[in-house]
Amino acid sequence: ATMPPLLSAIANAGRHGVLVKSAVVMERIGQVDAVALDKTGTLTEGVPQVTDVVPLDASGLTGDELLALAAGAERPSEHPLARAVVEAARDLDVPPAEGFHSTPGTGVRAIVAGHEIAVGSPARLLPHTAHPAAAVIAGLEDAGRTAVLVTRDGVPSGVLGIADRIRADAATTVTALTGLTGATPILLTGDNPRAAARLAAEVGVDEVHAGLLPQDKVAAVRRLEAEGRRVLVVGDGINDAPALAAAHTGAAMGGAGSDLALETADLIVVRDELAAVPAAVDLSRRARRLVK
Ligand code: ADP
Ligand code: MG
């Protein structure tokens, strides 16, 4: 017997490196007419590296001490930024963490070497914008870096600059999705507006929503769906899982994707090639023409 069109489309998608979880999903993905993309780990490779270690004078810390404390707090986290911090501290004596706590879209907190160390989004952790750390942060963000604030017992003690490469197929994927859906994808990110705008310009995205918490990503998806759009969300992190669930179709990046994102998504980009996403939309449309 010949295979039903949707099943052979699933097999074909598999050859492109996309795991489509069901025939229903294979059918639905062709209906999408709007796309929302996450930044870190989705449009970027998700293998960020620490480029700058800047202790604040008042902290009395050296760069290595700052990095070791941050790495202690980050070690239990699976976030790509956490892995970058731990990797940068690989040759240092990193103290163990107790009472680790992580807040998606914000950062981590733990007791390290007897102090409460928090590492995360300056927008959420910096007490006021006139703080001396703000100028350091602005300088790094203008350079396209993600700036991460380190606080010790609630007091800002330093800033880490982190940079991540844009995926080689990010711009062509944006173009392909625009062609298939008739609408340019939008960017939904928890990162800062400056780094987000810079990346958006490089990949050809016009609409950027930055500084978002996981529930803000959901709200953005629901707004589009309330306008009658069928939204495809592509993401990788725990912070994307609620938006992946709320979307008409959710796609997770398989390589560095968090378990929760992989479980929640309707399809998984197994080989970590973003271009497989428009390929799956196209395969769905071809299969639907054969079914009708
Ligand atoms: P994106 O939406 O681009 O994938 P996230 O929502 O995962 O980004 O993170 C948003 C912001 O929260 C980061 O840019 C960073 O400032 C902060 N953050 C989240 N998790 C961590 C972490 N483990 N370590 C440091 N910063 C973090
Ligand atoms: Mg992400």
Can you summarize this structure?
The protein is an alpha/beta fold and 292 residues long.
Describe the overall structure.
This protein has 292 residues and is of the alpha/beta class. It folds into two domains: 5-45 and 165-291, HAD superfamily/HAD-like (Rossmann fold), CATH 3.40.50.1000; 49-163, Calcium-transporting ATPase, cytoplasmic domain N. Helices cover 42% and strands 23% of the residues. The protein has 13 helices and 13 strands. The strands form two sheets. It has a seven-stranded mixed sheet, sandwiched between helices. The protein binds adenosine-5'-diphosphate and magnesium ion.
Class from secondary-structure proportions: alpha/beta
CATH superfamily of the largest domain: HAD superfamily/HAD-like
Instruction: Write down the overall mean pLDDT.
Output: 94
Q: Which distinct ligands sit in these coordinates?
A: adenosine-5'-diphosphate, magnesium ion
Assign the CATH topology of the largest domain: Rossmann fold
Specify the CATH architecture of the largest domain: 3-Layer(aba) Sandwich
Q: Which regions contain 5 or more consecutive residues with pLDDT less than 50? A: none
**SSE order:** HEHEHEHHEEEHHEEHEHEHEHEHEH
Tell me, what is the CATH class of the largest domain?
Answer: Alpha Beta
% residues in beta strands: 15-25%
Family: Belongs to the cation transport ATPase (P-type) (TC 3.A.3) family. Type IB subfamily.
Organism: Actinomadura sediminis
Protein name: Heavy metal translocating P-type ATPase
Subcellular location: Cell membrane
